[in-house]
Amino acid sequence: NAGVMQNPRHLVRRRGQEARLRCSPMKGHSHVYWYRQLPEEGLKFMVYLQKENIIDESGMPKERFSAEFPKEGPSILRIQQVVRGDSAAYFCASSPRQGSTDTQYFGPGTRLTVL
Amino acid sequence: DAKTTQPTSMDCAEGRAANLPCNHSTISGNEYVYWYRQIHSQGPQYIIHGLKNNETNEMASLIITEDRKSSTLILPHATLRDTAVYYCIVRGIQGAQKLVFGQGTRLTINP
């Protein structure tokens, strides 16, 4: 059973460009979570999605960031007009259900570098 | 979710048991204790979780005190590949969707 997959693993963008990060959850998982880890800092929750629904986006920056999890295909985290401060590792996790007993399994992450 | 307190760093000799403590004195009755680790900026890896009873799996054992205010993660025979940052997370029904990561414990296994 393949784990959570993320691509690309490394992404380089110039300031002002758009970044698209993809996450394919584990088979049978319909809940996806995005976390961000800034350099030398801990992981911070960004957004939680189910298929076609955003459930909790309390950790998302108010501007330039958006996320979706369509009925078919991977979840996408989109960052418009990137700035240097967006350089970070972005991790996706998935779980089969929502709840405090449902373990989240993480992908390998996408490392975004903004020049 | 209850807050957790962990030592910033620990060392352990290869082949010995590594015991990582975590305090969660404000934990409530329906909150679980989860442990993850992150090896050198890879994605966090799930280790184990528990509510009140001690738990064991192929990776580790989790010992939760009777009052549930603290717990210990035990790696029985640490190897160099266990060098990582270990996160203790308390997760409850309220806000169960997200994991709140603290600074964790940086465990170094020495040869």
Structural notes for this entry:
The complex is a heterodimer of chains A (115) and B (111). Chain A has 115 residues and is an all-beta fold. Helix content of chain A is 0%, strand content 49%. Chain A is built from no helices and 11 strands. In chain A, strands 2, 4, 5, 6, 9, 10 and 11 form a 7-stranded mixed β-sheet that branches. In chain A, strands 1-3-8-7 form a 4-stranded antiparallel β-sheet, with no helix packed on it. In chain A, a hairpin with a 2-residue loop joins β5 (43-50) and β6 (53-56). Helix content of chain B is 0%, strand content 45%. Chain B is built from no helices and 9 strands. Chain B has strands at 9-13, 18-23, 32-38, 45-50, 55-56, 61-64, 70-75, 84-91, 105-110. Chain B is globular. Chains A and B meet through β4, β5, β9 and β10 of A and β3 and β4 of B.
User: What fraction of residues of chain B sit in β-strands?
Assistant: over 45%
Average pLDDT confidence of chain A is 93
β-strand percent of chain A reads over 45%
Gap from first CA to last CA of chain A: 37 Å
- In N-to-C order, the SSE pattern of chain A is EEEEEEEEEEE
- How many helix segments of chain A? 0
Largest beta-sheet details of chain A: 7 strands, mixed
The arrangement of helices and strands of chain B along the chain is EEEEEEEEE
- Would you count the extended β strands of chain B for me? 9
Q: Any idea what the radius of gyration of chain A is?
A: 13 Å
Number of helices of chain B: 0
Unreliable stretches of chain B = none
Note the main attributes of this structure.
heterodimer, A: 115 residues, mainly beta, seven-stranded mixed β-sheet, globular, B: 111 residues, five-stranded mixed β-sheet
